[in-house]
Batch of 2 targets.
Target 1
Amino acid sequence: MLPYQVTWDLHTHLTRQLRGKTPAEKAAHLIEVGSRHGIERFCCYMGVEWNTNPDPENLRKQNDDILEAVEAHPDRMMGFVYLNPKHQAESLDELKRCVRDGPMVGVKLWVSHRCSEPELDPIVELAMEFGVPIFQHTWIKTTGNLPGESTPDDVARLAIRHPEAKLICGHTGGNWEAAIPAIRDFSNISVGIGGFDPTAGVTEMAVRELGAERVLFGSDAPGRAFASQLAKVTGADISASQKALILGENLKRLLEPVMLGKGLTQ
Ligand SMILES: [Zn+2]
């Protein structure tokens, strides 16, 4: 066990590396392995089978997988609803079904549509009304991004229009040395430091430039090993209290309003 009171993982999935046939069984395996590393809670998104540009029916199927995992393990698993801004009306319906009327506590956006586009606005506004954060995958790819794949600059442009939204810049843009300056001036953007190689210095730079309060631990397990992603924090040259913020206290604070509203215990 890690010597931190709150260790919450921002970023996990139910994909094929996990044992089990059903989402509930796969979640049980994720919990079993994560628990060995001291992780108490797992934010989870997207279905057992992924789709980069899901149609409304596939979106619902993927979110149903997460609902099953959360309902089977309500004190360990926390769902973020996967949305596709290319299907705006149906995405708003999914947000209502899974967050307002269901147990989910956040929004996940992936690579179908750049998040700086105006189609995001109604989704962000409804997420704000429900008090939930939005995790946006970002990357700065040397070989060029997918057509709908957001960069940290896209998240910054979204933050200009929505300075009160709780935005999370996923993967710290992959190329974190370029990403951190791009979002530095927007205090409502946090960075998720999971899902890329555990290069030395990323957490130190994020803390120095953004403040520890804006840095969130996540693993991207099972695609990434818990240990390699935890090491970005535990091995960083920062204080114990800063590590505690990054490993769970920040995420807990971010999710507190929606969790309290749903009567979920922290
Ligand atoms: Zn991921």
Target 2
Amino acid sequence: MKYFIKTFGCQANKSDSERIAGDYQARGYQETDSWKEADEIVINTCSVRERAEDRVKGFLLNIQKYFPQTQSATRPKIILTGCMIHHGAQKLRQDLPLVDEVLPIAEVGFNSPAIRKDKKHAWVPISSGCNSFCTFCIVPYARGRERSRPMVDVVAEVKQLAAEGYDEITLLGQNVNSYGLEKAGIGYRKLLMSREGFALSDIPSNQSAYFPPDGIPPFVTLIRQISAIDGIKKIHFMTSNPWDFWEELIDEIATNQKIDRFVHLPVQSGSDRILSLMNRGYTHADYLSLINRIKAKVKDVRIGTDIIVGFPGETETDFEETVALAKEVGFAVAFSAQYSPRPGTAAYRIYEDNIPAKIKKERWQILEDLINRPNLESRPIIR
Ligand code: SF4
């Protein structure tokens, strides 16, 4: 029996697919490079933008053209997992009749070690899900509440990787800084999705979603334990968020030469008004102050970011504040996106997508020319 995994989206999905592959191989399946030869096709989906979902639909269309009979007995079994499952199994099977099963990622298979193609660098998930509820983001609904892997498990996995010859790792999570600090089972999703007159004030504030660290934040302890493993030479982590980028973490980066000097810190907007509508929990000044504290201690640091342009209601003045912030920080790289309303998010429910596509594109281009073009030669490779 052969399996084929098609992965869309971010590094978290790619890392999940490595574990799904491990589960298939533990069950005696072999990987195939061609979906046409597979007995089972897993589509690990992304919902972050409409285009990402369109690509999933395009892939299914290709399968349908190749196997015109829709009966599952005469074609590979198709399993859909990943972020698109937040639409609900019933709706997905209605819209995508070729799909045989819709399964949460944890049910597709995580019981085996990851199967990694790269033999020197490894992605290591440390947490999954998110408690932050940025209004534009589908992750808290698609992946659920934040859950951290036990530190002993993460450290054991990295020790094993080092023994196999890996010398570089990237610790992965939707918000790595809050590793080990989550409150479990708060039921926000139920709250958000059940209310008719849903408003911004119903969304939990980012800062209150975590217990404040008592002593050393667990993420810093984890990094120290991993740094102590012989053979590990370079440590990257992503994604960090500004509201809990602990002072202890800055000190650790400054003094621990195994940690990469590239810090990816999504800002999303430079306008306080838009940041508040996004429920980001910090202001332009807060972000800048954090960057200045990092730069003061980590002399050779380079900062990368994510920015959304054309968020509902973004005025020319709001956008100018983003441009000003980009100039003030001097980002090494920015992943800019034109806002796309995602069904299921708070922003989809409470704001009108009222910025014309032409303006979104112009603003995106301005940031691209300002941040990414001048840095083309020295753009950091995001691990
Ligand atoms: S921190 Fe915000 S943007 Fe990042 S995954 Fe969580 S909700 Fe989404």
